[in-house]
Design goal:
Elements lengths: L10 E4 L9 H23 L4 E6 L10 H6 L26 E6 L10 H7 L4 E7 L1 H14 L3 E10 L3 H15 L3 E2 L1 H10 L13 H4 L10
Helix pairs in contact: 1-6, 4-5
């Protein structure tokens, strides 16, 4: 099996939001994850490469809720609530002007968003993936990227799961099925340096969030 290694052309950071860290294991990892995600974001921006932050944001009325939320009668990352906000200390779209923001309502960052168009507009055919949770939103986004002929590497120490066996199993599956490598942050940053310098996405992005006014806590209404 040959993993698909590339000069990685950008960073996509998924669901680094308060509500996702209500799980005890993810909360235990939170500070390390924030530090490592920030290293990736900063390295990409210094190289002039696109960084896209993905957030899950749901409507209060339940109309955007996933099936599990409907079954349980409980939503999360509800628009305008503290739970939908980025975790403390993160270099996110609201505090870093060259980070674009895309919001979603399902596990895959491609589902119902214009992430694919945003990547294409900036010539991104390969990117690093970081955030939470490995077995759900990271895996779904990586799988959808493959379906769109985009190359992805998952950053080992910038992703986490509610259970580490799920984390390891998911990464092994992505490597075996889709030849998507798992890199340490140090390896990923070196690979970013190998990519040709480009233009960060910046404030002129045509992302979903921009159409909602660019408010980091905003979402569908």
């Amino acid at each position: 099996m040959n993993e698909r290694h590339r000069p990685w052309q950008g960073v996509v950071m998924v669901d680094m939001q308060v509500d996702f860290f209500n799980d005890a294991e993810l909360e235990r990892c939170r500070e390390d994850l924030v530090t490592t995600c920030n290293r990736l974001v900063d390295a990409a921006l210094q190289r002039g490469l696109p960084v896209i932050e993905i957030r899950t944001v749901h409507r209060r009325d339940g109309s955007t809720w996933a099936l599990n939320m409907v079954d349980d009668g409980a939503g999360m990352t509800i628009e305008g609530t503290a739970g939908a906000a980025p975790v403390d200390g993160l270099h996110h779209a609201g505090c870093t002007g060259d980070v674009a923001l895309v919001t979603k309502t399902r596990d895959s960052a491609f589902h119902g968003t214009d992430l694919s168009d945003l990547l294409a507009a900036h010539g991104v055919e390969s990117f690093l993936l970081c955030g939470v949770s490995t077995e759900s939103c990271i895996a779904a986004t990586a799988t959808d990227a493959y379906a769109r002929d985009l190359s992805v590497a998952v950053v080992l120490d910038a992703t986490a799961s509610v259970r580490w066996d799920l984390h390891d199993h998911t990464l092994a599956g992505l490597r075996a099925q889709y030849r998507q490598p798992s890199l340490s942050a140090d390896e990923a940053i070196v690979a970013l340096a190998d990519a040709p310098p480009g233009s960060a996405v910046g404030a002129d992005r045509s992302s979903t969030a921009a159409r909602w006014g660019g408010d980091p806590g905003a979402g569908p209404t």
